[in-house]
Structure formats: structure tokens, C-alpha cells
Amino acid sequence: MSLIPHNLQAIAATIVAAAQESGRPAASVQLLAVSKTFGADAVLEAVAAGQRAFGENYLQEGVDKIRAVQEAGATALEWHFIGPIQSNKTRPIAEHFDWVHTVEREKIAQRLSEQRPAGLAPLQICLQVNISGEASKSGVTPQELSALAHKVAALPNLTLRGLMAIPEPVEDYAQQRAAFAALRALYQQLRAEGLALDTLSMGMSADLRAAIVEGATIVRVGSAIFGSRNYHKA
Ligand SMILES: *Cc1c(COP(=O)(O)O)cnc(C)c1O
């Protein structure tokens, strides 16, 4: 078996084991294959192995890849935008993607809602939370999260699904879990405030297990599927 299907199988096994550890069905954890810097050929190889959801960080690269994959005949895929968003670049995101995980400002959410084409399903949204404090520049602070969440939930062409975080990378398993537990606590608080959230987007190649044990419903995995990235080639 070639590398990508082999890696997908190994990750599926990790998901099953970690979900079991947290007393949840494996089907409650969705694998988002992060294909940034890899070509349409790599995506198509993953599609042939049964993968349906893909994450992209860079807008032009992502839009080109979505087109190339569609032209190659792969349909019924789900595309998630997981990169930083510039406010003058929201339109192509609203037009080409199904999900956005990195909303951290009301203005960006408003633009995405206004620019979502009529006839497409609402754009599925996660708010990115800065869970590691000063170590990360991205994400809404936990203090500002609730106000932002209620505003985004009220926008017409978006569906607020949940929260996303990229904690500071640490090797210690207990520390990994602590960051994800903090995001889960914020998620539970918003649910207690009446927001109908169902998504915790957390965990990458290096901290997948900790994230699932703490309740991740989407894990975003790149290098463990596609191999290490060469940014110069991208
Ligand atoms: C690149 C990226 C990932 C995947 O990271 P790996 O360590 O390769 O699994 C996940 N989430 C975001 C937001 C990313 O930018």
C-alpha cells in the first residue's frame, strides 16, 4: 500500500483507540486531512482511500486545488479553510469553502455572511480561540469569546458550529490535555449560554490523542497523512 492510504489507516486506528479511551464512538471524531502545500494528486489519492474532508491554509492555493480536484472528477468533498483570514480576502473563502475554522473578529464574520452566495448552504463556522495566551497571536481571547459568539450566531448566512484552537506545541501529554480541556470548558460554557454548538476543532499530527481524549470532534491532520511539508515548493 502506498504512503497516503497507509497513513490514513494508521490515523483511523489512533482515532478509534483515543475515542474509546474517552468513552465516545469513533464516528464522533471527524478527520480533516490538511493538504496545504500538497498537490491535487495527493488529495485525489486520499479521496480514493475514502477521505472526504480537506483543510487548506492558503487561499489561492486552496481555490486552485479545489478546482483541479473537481475537474479530475472528485465530487461530494468538504473543504475547510483553516488559515489566517485577511479582511480583503473573504469573498473567495465565502464562495469556495464549506467551513471556516479561523474566524476571530466580528468584521470578518459579517463579510463572510454578506459574501456567501445565495443558493449555497450556510458557511459552517468555528471561532478560533487564543488558548495559550501571549504565545499565540491568533484567536479571540477567552474574555472576548462569548460576545463574539453571540454576534456570529446571529448572522444570516453562517452557522456557528463551535470552537477551534492551535495550542502552543508542547511534548508533555498532560500539558497537551490541559490546553484542550480549557477549550472544551469554553465550549461548554457557550452551550450553557444557549448556543447550539457541536464542534471542537482541536488536535493535529503531534497531539491528536490528547485532543480526542478531551473531546475533539474534528482533528486537523496534515503531516501524519501527507508527509512533511516543503514550503518552498508550495
Ligand atoms: C498545518 C495545520 C494543521 C496540520 O498540522 P500537522 O502538524 O501537519 O498535522 C492543522 N491545523 C492548522 C490550523 C494548520 O495550519
From TrEMBL:
SUPFAM superfamilies: PLP-binding barrel. The keyword DNA damage does not apply. PROSITE patterns: UPF0001. The modification N6-(pyridoxal phosphate)lysine is found at K36. Keywords: Pyridoxal phosphate. Gene3D superfamilies: Alanine racemase. InterPro entries: Ala_racemase_N, PLP-binding_barrel, PyrdxlP_homeostasis. Residues 7-229 form the Alanine racemase N-terminal domain. Pyridoxal 5'-phosphate (PLP)-binding protein, which is involved in PLP homeostasis. PANTHER family: PROLINE SYNTHETASE CO-TRANSCRIBED BACTERIAL HOMOLOG PROTEIN, PYRIDOXAL PHOSPHATE HOMEOSTASIS PROTEIN. Belongs to the pyridoxal phosphate-binding protein YggS/PROSC family. HAMAP family: PLP_homeostasis. This is Pyridoxal phosphate homeostasis protein. It comes from Duganella qianjiadongensis.
